[in-house]
Design brief:
Oligomer: single chain
Number of helices: 11
Structural class: alpha+beta
Strand content: 25-35%
Largest sheet: 12 strands, antiparallel
Helix content: 25-40%
């Protein structure tokens, strides 16, 4: 229960914020489309309205004001601003203003500079991922907007696999206001793994201990410009808004949040960092098959999903345990963990296990996955159809739990112990194939091989600062 002093403090904070939003530092008469208007420059943003019609004013908060360009060959000054669509996609729009003074333009530029926008970015581009358009997307979509916003950039193009991990582990980012990756989920995962290693080594943390909370990253916020085969994370970080331009504009806006990630452990080592999802079973089977059909490009995914449905499920036995998230007193986050809970029955006969490092939020208005939450959702599929499992992964916030799919919410940590045979001499070709598939795990869309029959996954909350926007409940 909130105390009286906490209520007063919150009320005072809201009053201060309201006063800041209403504070006007400059006002002048201008013309828009030949009609007389009033333009006010405030601490929170700009406001434009016709005389005696302030109730219908157009308001631009400072993070959404891209730039103001003084008149060149015409008498109009162009204000470029960021427009938010209902689905959180961002666009650029312009407003032509006539008879605006140099003093007003100067004040607007001062407020833009003080709005928290990044001024210097470190950019990592994968030129090979997806359709190989990383450089093209950066030069056509991002670079021009960064220049308009007055942002300096240092650009590094990756040359080999795991190059981004080396960059993340060895680079000093303290002189930058942000880090930008131009690529897919794999490039972000590589960079994130390198940044994690650098931070833990610097702090003297035994990062291979699965019972240890990793030290949260003390780095500039990271922005992702989608240019890969899989670009799922950027959509979650941008509250459903998608596309390169939306990502670039959210970076320019400078809004920051701290996202949660998974630490994945195997054989008493930090196996990987995951920012999107961890999956075992069916997803590994699909990805292995897709890797063998790369010549089909994006069509291979449709082919392998259809082929998987026709060929049937590959079941496996596993013990699954989890620890639920425990809230501290007063709604705070407790650093302690509850005891392990066995998912019943003790040995699961299933074909798919997966989890996102995001909190499942169910409100009266909508359901969604929050990448900035405090717990995650664990899903174990046993008797339901493969189509239901695929649907639950693609639209997890929209699909209810089908039969024979165990969905556990409010999870902080889980581990899987596989009950596979230690056979070294498979008797049939099918047995040999199954033995190979049983070693595979999918992390953020990348196919990796386990070297143990047991792996554990621990949620590291508020771990990495990112550019983005929070979803409105």
């Amino acid at each position: 229960m909130e105390s009286k002093s906490e209520n007063i403090s919150q009320t005072n904070k809201e009053t201060v914020n309201q006063n800041l939003e209403e504070t006007v530092i400059f006002t002048e008469a201008v013309k828009i489309k030949g009609k007389e208007n009033i333009l006010t420059v405030g601490l929170a943003g700009l406001k434009v309205f016709q005389k005696s019609k302030e109730a219908s004013a157009i308001t631009f908060k400072w993070p959404d004001v891209l730039c103001i360009q003084p008149p060149q060959k015409c008498s109009e000054t162009v204000l470029q601003y960021i427009h938010h669509k209902a689905n959180n996609t961002l666009l650029i729009k312009t407003l032509q203003i006539q008879e605006i003074s140099e003093q007003c333009v100067h004040l607007i530029n001062q407020q833009i500079a003080a709005s928290g926008r990044p001024k210097k970015l470190f950019v990592v581009i994968n030129p090979f991922g997806g359709a190989g358009k990383g450089l093209q997307i950066y030069h056509e979509e991002a670079e021009p907007l960064f220049k308009v916003a007055g942002i300096e950039t240092t650009v590094i193009v990756t040359e080999r696999s795991k190059h981004a991990t080396q960059i993340g582990e060895s680079t000093d980012f303290s002189h930058y206001d942000g880090i930008v990756v131009v690529g897919g989920d794999g490039l972000y995962q590589e960079l994130l793994h390198g940044l994690t290693l650098q931070e833990q080594k610097k702090s003297g943390i035994n990062y291979d201990n699965p019972d240890t909370d990793l030290v949260k990253l003390n780095v500039p916020p990271i922005g992702i410009i989608p240019a890969g085969t899989g670009n799922g994370t950027t959509k979650y970080y941008n509250a459903g808004g998608f596309g390169a331009k939306t990502s670039v504009l959210n970076i320019i806006r400078g809004e920051q949040h701290r996202a949660s990630v998974f630490g994945v452990y195997c054989n008493n080592k930090l196996f990987s960092i995951s920012h999107l999802f961890v999956a075992y079973g069916m997803c590994g089977d699909l990805m292995k098959w897709a890797e063998e059909l790369r010549w089909m490009k994006k069509w291979r995914y449709y082919y392998v999903i259809l082929g998987q449905f026709l060929s049937g499920k590959r079941y496996f036995e596993a013990e699954v345990q989890y620890r639920p998230f425990v809230a501290g007193s007063g709604g705070g986050v407790s650093s302690s963990l509850s005891d392990w809970i066995n998912l019943e029955p003790a040995v699961q006969h299933c074909y798919s296990i997966y989890a996102f490092p995001y909190e499942f939020v169910d409100t009266e208005n909508k359901k969604y996955l929050d990448p900035f939450g405090q717990c995650c959702q664990l899903v174990v599929s046993s008797g339901c159809s493969q189509l239901s499992t695929v649907k639950s992964m693609v639209a997890v916030s929209k699909t209810s739990s089908p039969g024979n799919m165990e969905v556990v919410n409010n999870v902080k940590e889980f581990k899987v112990r596989l009950q596979r045979e230690n056979a070294t001499n498979p008797r049939t070709e099918r047995e040999a194939k199954n033995m190979e598939l049983e070693k595979l795990i999918i992390i953020d869309g990348e196919l990796l091989s386990l070297d143990s029959k047991e792996f554990s996954v621990r949620l590291q909350t508020s771990f990495v600062p990112v550019f983005g926007t929070a979803s409105d409940a």
